[in-house]
């Protein structure tokens, strides 16, 4: 804890003064460009990964980057999605999985989560992804199956997002785009889901045109 406290002091003395104008603007409200849904894993630093400043991302994190399908049951994820899309009007939602995901590893190991009943039930929202890997994974290595699971879990959560009324409405109006990413911790590579090709390709390729426009 002293390490964290010292970090706060450095932030106040060294970082905040350089960004004071931005923080004063943010104190009046927020208008993030995206809702970024990712895993709670401590190795995922969203601002580092996306090179964004405070105020640019509305971030939701949970074990396994899960999006439960919409129900009338009140839940933190459902409320956050509703607020981000319905109130903040974010134009983009990103669901970002990652390699070496403990949640996904637990999901494939029978009995591994018996002592963690809430975690076991939570990962039930990934069951369809597990079923797809079981059906299509014959002949693949364990590493290949895990990558398939990471990707299929992201695609599944994108499907779950579409069951949320605010998301469905914004999609129908053309006001919202959904994005699925998988981040490789060891290499820094990020692959994005291409719905037309039904596969994951490098972010640099998936968004080549928009990146080029941004640089000109």
Please specify the SSE layout and strand pairing.
Elements lengths: L1 H14 L4 H7 L7 E6 L6 H5 L6 E6 L13 H12 L4 E7 L3 H7 L8 H6 L4 H10 L5 H20 L3 H8 L4 E7 L6 E5 L4 E4 H4 L1 H8 L1
Parallel strand pairs: 1-2, 1-3, 3-4
Antiparallel strand pairs: 4-5, 5-6
Tell me about this structure.
- With 216 residues, the chain is α/β, with parallel strands linked by helices.
- The protein has 2 domains: 1-29, no CATH class; 31-215, Carbonic anhydrase (Beta-carbonic Anhydrase, Chain A), CATH 3.40.1050.10.
- The protein has 11 helices and 6 strands.
- The protein has helices spanning 2-15, 20-26, 46-50, 76-87, 102-108, 117-122, 127-136, 142-161, 165-172, 203-206, 208-215, and strands at residues 34-39, 57-62, 92-98, 177-183, 190-194, 199-202.
- A 6-stranded mixed beta sheet has the order 2-1-3-4-5-6.
- α7 packs across α8 (142-161).
- The longest helix has 20 residues, at 142-161.
- The termini are far apart.
- The mean pLDDT is 96.
CATH class of the largest domain: Alpha Beta
Summing up helix and strand content along with how strands pair, one would put the structural category as alpha/beta
Could you name the CATH topology of the largest domain? Answer: Beta-carbonic Anhydrase, Chain A
Main sheet makeup: 6 strands, mixed
Count of DSSP-assigned helices: 11
- Give the distance, in angstroms, between the N- and C-terminal Cα atoms: 45 Å
Output the helix-strand order: HHEHEHEHHHHHEEEHH
In percent, how helical is the residue content?
Answer: 40-55%
If you compute it from the alpha carbons, what radius of gyration comes out, rounded to the nearest whole angstrom?
19 Å
Shape: globular
The amount of beta strand, in percent, is 15-25%
Give the neighbour order of strands across the main sheet. 2-1-3-4-5-6
The CATH architecture of the largest domain can be named as: 3-Layer(aba) Sandwich
How would you state the average pLDDT, rounded? 96
